[in-house]
Design brief:
By secondary structure, the chain is mainly beta. Helices cover about 10% and strands about 40% of the residues. About 40% of the residues are buried.
């Protein structure tokens, strides 16, 4: 009977999500609207068993970086925008304790950096967490060369309150400032990580409790759907995405506006695909939409890559790059 009740709750959640998906197609933010999700391919590399982070490559056109969740080798993968490709890179000296998200930032000198957030903490047991970064490899150099990355910078940070599970990393594309979001609380929390203190131990700054993705019930199964599982900032620094297990939240922002200021405003909910254990998402390089991918891989249901295109000019599709 308990199993039957759980199935009923799951079906009810899916029904609510489907109804909401139809409604939100008419929502807009300053004229911006999004298409329904398009299935653009299946992840070809079977080694990507739990895709937890995703980010568009700056140097390698139409390619994306991704990584597995906890327990995998310390490696990242390079895949195409339709899920193809099997190239991986080992990060020498690191341990994948619980890698949960990744990001990209191009510094004032034009150097592109890939960031990894080792911030997961399912049991709330860790005293500190880690942000890693390394210079982004170029595909044409890596295809024939050594794919072991040895020059890696690290920030170890502690939270000012108590240990928390986190899965979302946000990088201000103008300043390089780093932010993480807690995952499980009824009102999730925004923290800022001092971003200039590489290879040091720092304390995060607690900003405020977030006013979105708040469950309206105490039913455990429903509450879990509101856990925050991934985030992204567009390279233009003018758009932000945050996702939970059944919604994607979207903000437009001014180039100079800080991420905390943007997240204090009410977001819109944009179309997305209900994925099993959906966690990773990333903007397309040219901000013409965003991609999502599920963390869960099963033989009968392989992992699909979805693209949600940004619509312009009275629902006319913009050029896909």
């Amino acid at each position: 009977m308990k199993r039957q009740n759980q199935l009923i709750l799951v079906f009810f959640c899916l029904f609510l999500w489907a109804c909401r998906s139809q409604f939100i197609l008419d929502k807009s933010s300053d004229g911006v609207k999004f298409s329904n999700p398009k299935d653009v391919g299946i992840l070809e590399n079977v080694e990507i068993a739990e895709a937890s982070g995703l980010v568009a490559s700056h140097y390698n056109q139409n390619l994306f970086w991704t990584h597995n969740d906890s327990g995998d080798l310390p490696r990242v993968f390079l895949i195409s925008s339709n899920g193809k490709g099997k190239l991986d890179f080992i990060l020498k000296g690191l341990v994948n304790r619980d890698w949960e998200d990744m990001g990209n930032w191009v510094d004032p000198q034009g150097q592109s950096w890939i960031y990894l957030a080792d911030i997961g903490d399912n049991n709330g047991q860790y005293s500190s967490y880690f942000i890693y970064r390394f210079k982004e490899p170029r595909f044409e150099e890596a295809i024939l060369g050594n794919r072991v990355i040895t020059e890696i910078q690290k920030i170890e940070f502690k939270l000012p309150d108590e240990p928390k599970d986190m899965e979302s990393l946000l990088i201000d594309q103008r300043t390089g400032e780093l932010f993480v979001l807690s995952k499980r609380e009824k009102q999730k929390i925004l923290y800022e990580i001092p971003s200039k203190n590489w290879n040091q131990i720092v304390e995060a700054k607690k900003h405020f409790k977030l006013r979105f993705s708040i469950p309206t019930t105490t039913l455990n199964l429903i509450e879990k759907l509101y856990y925050l599982t991934g985030a992204a900032v567009a390279s233009s620094n003018e758009e932000v995405l945050v996702r939970n297990y059944f919604q994607v939240f979207y903000w437009q922002k001014n180039f100079y506006e800080s991420i905390p200021d943007a997240l204090q405003r009410k977001p819109i909910v944009v179309p997305s695909k209900f994925e099993p254990q959906g966690e990773a998402l990333a903007f397309a390089k040219y901000q013409n939409g965003f991609y999502t991918v599920s963390e869960t891989s099963q033989k009968m249901t392989p992992v699909h890559f979805y693209f949600i295109e940004k619509l312009r000019n009275n629902h006319q599709l913009g050029k896909t790059k």
